[in-house]
Specification:
Strand content: 25-35%
Mean pLDDT: 76
Order of helices and strands: EEEEHHEEEEEEEEHHEEEHE
Number of strands: 16
Radius of gyration: 19 Å
Length: 235
């Protein structure tokens, strides 16, 4: 992970264009908009939370062991919340966990837990570590479907630039009657439907009336094809 991670942040100061965080290993400068005159993470530049915090190192090891080779994208961020406190965000796409520096879970967003983070204000996120195996996803006989299935790539392209809110949400790969289907909670201008289901050709998939309740109650949501940036947990 060393070629991808950003080591801990120190001395964030806002200027006319926002705050700047100086990293090392490798050296990078990342612009982070912050409202305060000065925000300081609780770790010096020479420290690395991924190795200095035993619970965080264990968390990374557990995720790697559980999901290595599986089509998932999981990221861990160092962040500021609740007026400048340092926290760590584990983002699994459809669910996110916010921890304090002692590894205690502060809140959860997504999954069966719903929303428990409404009172916290995340003002910045800096990537520390990630595992991204989404490029290994095969669906409808196509490798990396979000790029190589034209209608799906077009839908994602619209979501990337959408300003209406109709494309906020997640796209998951699911199975129905031994066939791949794509399920999304994006509104898509529907005016209130909880989910849309598409077949491999991009047509609305037909779920038998007798199967509807069971299908939606048992969505696995374990293979995330795409998450609209505006719908990332805790954004």
């Amino acid at each position: 992970w060393q070629d991808k991670m950003l080591i801990s942040v120190t001395n964030l100061k806002s200027g006319k264009e926002g705050g700047y965080a100086v990293m090392n290993q490798p050296f990078q400068i990342v612009k982070i908009p912050v409202a305060e005159k000065e925000i300081i993470f609780e770790y010096d530049l020479d420290e690395n939370p991924l190795t200095d915090l035993s619970w965080l190192k264990t968390k990374v090891d557990e995720i790697t062991s559980l999901f290595q080779g599986k089509p998932v994208h999981i990221a861990i961020y160092q962040c500021l919340y609740d007026g400048g406190k340092t926290g760590f965000l584990e983002d699994r796409g459809n669910i996110a966990f916010l921890y304090n520096c002692e590894g205690e879970t502060l809140c959860i967003k997504g999954g069966d837990a719903g929303e428990t983070c409404s009172e916290l204000n995340i003002v910045s996120k800096v990537l520390l570590w990630e595992i991204n195996n989404n490029n290994g996803i095969t669906a409808c006989g196509v490798i990396d479907p979000k790029k190589n299935i034209p209608w799906l790539a077009e839908l994602i392209a619209k979501a990337e630039t959408d300003k209406t809110g109709n494309y906020l949400g997640v796209i998951w790969l699911e199975r129905y009657k031994d066939q791949d289907v794509f399920v999304t909670n994006m509104a898509l201008g529907s005016g209130g439907l909880a989910y849309h289901v598409f077949d491999c050709e991009g047509n609305p998939a037909t779920i038998d009336n007798a199967d509807v309740q069971d299908f939606f109650n048992n969505l696995k949501k374990d293979i995330v094809i795409y998450v609209n940036p505006g719908d990332h947990p805790l954004n």
